[in-house]
């Protein structure tokens, strides 16, 4: 037993005199492993961000109107709506400006934007200058690879979605498969 204790003292003494051996070496190995793990995580996270893109909530603007704006803000930009109806699924107030731009609000009492849609080449654009009629390649160049996409049986992209922090909140572009141009822009909360 005494020989074992003496041997341990000798080993610990050598480790403190010669930092390249013993306990100091173990600390360096642990640090190297932590650094390697951190670099691997950063690399993998970087690859994921190359695969799909999200947008900031501040970019959820269509035709100069910010998502979650109130009724008064919309009316200050576009005036009185051409017509007011109810949104089919949830019986929410829906304003139309012309035949191709619509805005759904959260309720009759607290009118904050729930969703917006442009369905014709009417000049309504995103902050990155995408309108109905823009080429599919322009969308990808402006926004990057989508968070989600749907394709037809021939492999043509039909829709692409960019989230704004949540799976159900963001911007969606619908495409005409023949011309590969934007046929509709939808922004907001998706069910």
What features would you describe in this structure?
- This protein is α+β, with helices and mostly antiparallel strands.
- The chain contains 4 helices and 10 strands; from the N terminus they run ααββαββββαββββ.
- The chain has an 8-stranded antiparallel β-sheet with strand order 3-4-5-6-10-9-8-7, with helices on one face. It has a two-stranded antiparallel ribbon with strand order 1-2.
- A hairpin with a 2-residue loop joins β1 (61-62) and β2.
Write the layout of secondary structure elements.
Elements (H helix, E strand, L loop, with lengths): L1 H16 L5 H29 L9 E2 L2 E2 L4 H8 L4 E5 L4 E6 L3 E5 L7 E6 L17 H8 L4 E4 L5 E10 L2 E8 L4 E9 L2
Characterize the largest beta sheet: strand count, sense, and whether it forms a barrel: 8 strands, antiparallel
Could you list the spans in which at least 5 consecutive residues all have pLDDT below 50? 1-18, 34-51
Q: Would you list the SSEs in sequence order as H and E?
A: HHEEHEEEEHEEEE
* Helix content class: 25-40%
| Average of pLDDT | 80
Number of helices: 4
Overall shape: it is: globular
**If strands are numbered along the chain, what order do they take across the biggest sheet?**
3-4-5-6-10-9-8-7
Give the termini separation: 72 Å
**Number of E-type strands:** 10
């Amino acid at each position: 037993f005494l020989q074992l204790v003496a041997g341990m003292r000798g080993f610990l003494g050598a480790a403190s005199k010669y930092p390249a051996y013993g306990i100091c070496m173990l600390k360096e190995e642990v640090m190297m492993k932590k650094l390697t793990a951190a670099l691997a995580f950063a690399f993998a996270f970087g690859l994921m961000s190359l695969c799909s893109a999200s947008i900031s909530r501040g970019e959820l603007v269509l035709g100069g109107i910010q998502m979650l704006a109130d009724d008064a803000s919309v009316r200050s930009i576009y005036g009185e709506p051409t017509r007011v109806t109810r949104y089919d699924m949830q019986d929410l107030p829906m304003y139309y400006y012309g035949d191709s731009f619509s805005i759904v609000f959260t309720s009759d009492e607290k009118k904050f934007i729930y969703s917006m849609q442009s369905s014709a080449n009417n000049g309504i654009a995103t902050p990155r200058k995408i309108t109905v009629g823009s080429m599919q390649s322009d969308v990808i160049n402006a926004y990057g690879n989508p968070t989600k996409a749907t394709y037809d049986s021939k492999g043509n992209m039909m829709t692409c979605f960019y989230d704004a922090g949540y799976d159900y909140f963001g911007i969606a572009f619908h495409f005409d498969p023949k011309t590969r141009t934007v046929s509709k822009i939808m922004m907001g909360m998706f069910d």
